Amino acid sequence: MKFFIDTADVGEIKKALALGLCDGVTTNPSLVAKTGRGFEDVLKEIVQLVPGPISAEVTATDYEGMLREGRHYAKFGEQVVIKVPLIVEGLRAVKTLTDEGTKVNVTLCFSPVQALLAAKAGATYISPFVGRLDDISQDGMAMVGDIVQIYRNYGFKTQVLVASVRHPVHVLEAAKLGADVATIPYSVIEQLAKHPLTDAGLKKFLADWEKVPKASK
Fold it and tell me: Maximum distance among all alpha carbons in the chain?
């Protein structure tokens, strides 16, 4: 499973790259707003850092506007993937951009049938939002399982990119279900590496090492 970093923070991206845990990046308007920087400046810097897919989200909600923004952002680098909302106008834009050779990530997916539509439109990635479904007492990971099954049933090439990841269990379940990608906040990546028994074991090893006689000079 590939790990994308869900951030517009260049510092976090650099840390993830140093760990070898950044196969790509996903951004959105909310993440960019947190940086206090202009989106195009952020996108240009990320393109220079990350060789893998970088999702750049359009803010237009009409077909022509999405095409205009998508075509513009696609010029920033060959690894740029245009992120389009899962609405009817968005599906039209997916079809056109895909036909033009541009990769598209369809975002804000909350049901398996929405994912089916995105795949039929030619999406490169579908982004089911598991955390937001969990927030309203629905099972986000069950949706992912249904999408994976549907795509396998019909041989769709669209990759399942699990989004709105809130904690390590989401990553675990995504991997067990066979999702292609999980896009993860850097804070969750750090949590994945932690276990209390690892910390306790390391503490004991180091304490025992202090008791070992040191070689005389």
Answer: 77
Residue tagged active-site, from 2, 15, 34, 83: 83
Residue type present at position 77: G
Q: pLDDT digit string (tens) for 142-160?
A: 999 999 999 999 999 999 9
Cβ partners under 8 Å of residue 42, min gap 6: 8, 10, 27, 32, 35
CATH architecture of 2-211: Alpha-Beta Barrel (3.20)
CB contact set of 156 (below 8 Å; sequence gap of 6+) = 119, 120, 150
pLDDT in tens, 67-87: 999 999 999 999 999 999 999
**Amino acid making up residue 89:** E
Of 96, 50, 109, the closest CA to residue 76 belongs to 50
83 catalytic? Reply is yes
